[in-house]
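Journal club prep, notes for RB
We'll compare a predicted complex against what the paper describes. Inputs for the zinc ion case:
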Amino acid sequence: MQALWLENHQLDLREVPEPAQPGEALIRIRKAGICSTDLELVKGYYPFRGIPGHEFIGEVVSADDRAWVGQRVVSDINITCGSCEQCLGGRSSHCENRTVLGINNRDGTFAEFTTLPIANLHRVPASVPDEMAVFAEPLAAALEIQQQVHIQPSERVLVIGSGRLGQLIAQTLVLTGCDLHVVARYEHQKKILVERGIRIVSEEDVQPWRWDIVVEATGSPSGFSLARQAIRPRGMLVLKSTYKGELSVNFSSIVVDEITIVGSRCGPFEPALRLMENGYVDPSVLIAAEFKLDEALQAFERAAQPGVLKVLVSP
Ligand SMILES: [Zn+2]
Ligand SMILES: [Zn+2]
């Protein structure tokens, strides 16, 4: 089959054997999305060799349990052991022996096919089209914030960053009824937010020491420092992006202001699918471009341009 291959910071298209993993479902990829993590893998921020890609919607071609064959599915990206202390403690996304689809020790979805354990799969409701379902993984990640933090409708919440993930975070947080503002830089990103009734604020107008909850979704030191200034004493700072290298932080001020810092990663798929099914969230407004798999190199170039939202690749 055709696949995008990453090795030594270099992407190329190549023919690879069709995957076959005993006990796992064979899935034909319908669409896959490029996320910032994929771009960082290419830059070499994490060691990875193989087929990247972890955001997708696919169709089960074969599985031990025949009931899954023909189903449109999305998938949890952490493939877990079920027997380590984290798994047994109900923290399976932190499995000590996990592989991660297209990120860590497991080929991903910029290919014609992939394989995954049935236990990871979620059926996509018929009314959710592919161009929405392909966002299930990052939408689930956005919802992880609400799994971790209780957001009261009376609270002032600031989201810093209106890129691929920031947009989904904004679409989900606005549903809580909180007083939500989003720091947005690019005009087209502002427009998408405003059209959904989400308020935007410029960096200069962010009042310091006033926000109950700040979500940092830029993964940049300047985003972190804006978040740090914005948060009120005893406020909650949610970190939703990884940082390249190490961040220099004044932890004394975090002690003095009694700030709670919450790291936040993968989230629940079923609520993500429900929100798309009942129309409360529409991630498809983020789609900037769609390429065929044999144009995947152009797709990555496009996705790496500043401010570009979601670029899709379909075999
Ligand atoms: Zn991602
Ligand atoms: Zn485990």
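Talking point for the session: The mean pLDDT is 97.
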